[in-house]
Amino acid sequence: MSGMLYLVPTPIGNLGDISLRCRETLENADFIAAEDTRVTMKLLNHLGIKKNLVSYYEHNKGFKGNVILDRILAGETCVLVSDAGSPAISDPGEDLVRLCAENGITVCAIPGPCAVITGLSISGLPTGRFCFEGFLSTSKKSRNEHLESLINETRTMIFYEAPHKLVNTLVDMQGVFGPHRKISLCRELTKLHEEVVRTTLAEAIEHYQQTPPKGEFVLVVEGAAPKEKETATAEDAAARVAQLVADGMSRKDAIKQTAKELNLPKNVVYDAALENNA
Ligand code: SAM
Question: Mapping DSSP to helix (H, G, I), strand (E, B) and coil, where does residue 163 land?
Fold first, then answer.
């Protein structure tokens, strides 16, 4: 009979956040698949647990995934942990879960610490509807494409970000969402220097240009205001194109952006701009 895969969330800062059930599951596992065995070893030492560790991370997940799968198929119970938080959320655990599911293995996820949910709940922004956007790309082009795809997103948006990329990301967000969009920057959650800065994109940029960011961040960004039911008119479209061109955007880009913002087909915006000499 095959074994099982357990997903065990680990503290995102405060070691006291490990639950009794997580502890028990780690104790009962045949082996633990860990993103960074040194990080997990520290946690196991803290808990007084001795266990066989297997490394499973981004650059060995193809090969190691199959090794882990074979052991589970042979009857062993594996616990998957990431460096911190819930495995499979913005880490390679996602692939191991898929592999196990495809091979008919039972996967059991234990609830617990997760940076995205902790950040959202503390943000002060609407939590009723939200979307998790993970990490933005390090490439400026892909980062902007990702952000532009969210221009009409009305749900609260959540991103993961590293401190050295924070200011560039905020500048790009301001370019797409505008300077007044609210943002809650949740830093070092559950740790000694936990901090939540609830502000706007423009103020956040000013703040972190003066005070270089430190620690890990969850960025929670207010969604766009819901669109008025009324459909935008040709005059609205022409006026918006004219405004964007006056702000320095090329006419082609201004038409593209206006079409996105006003939810109109590009050819309609193009014709409106032409008729109104925008
Ligand atoms: N799977 C984990 C989860 O969802 O909880 C997250 C893994 S992801 C590789 C790591 C990112 O989570 C960090 O870059 C940061 O954006 C966020 N993060 C993790 N711990 C955090 C903390 N204590 N405070 C703020 N953000 C944190």
Answer: helix
Which helix (H) or strand (E) segment is 158 a member of?
Answer: strand 156-161
Closest residue to atom 7 of ligand 1, CA basis: 90
Assign 159 a pLDDT band (cuts: 50, 70, 90): very high
Mark residue 51 as left, alpha or beta (left: phi above 0; alpha: psi -120 to 50; beta: remaining): beta
Cα Rg of the chain, angstroms? 23
Nearest CA to 163 out of 185, 142, 132 is that of 185
State the Cα angle at 202 between 198 and 206, rounded to 5°.
90
In terms of residues, how long is the chain?
278
3-state secondary structure of 26: helix
Helix (H, G, I), strand (E, B) or coil at 154: coil
Instruction: Kindly state if the Cβ of 96 falls inside 6 Å of ligand 1.
Output: no
pTM: 0.83
| Tens of pLDDT, residues 121-150 | 999 999 999 999 999 999 999 999 999 999
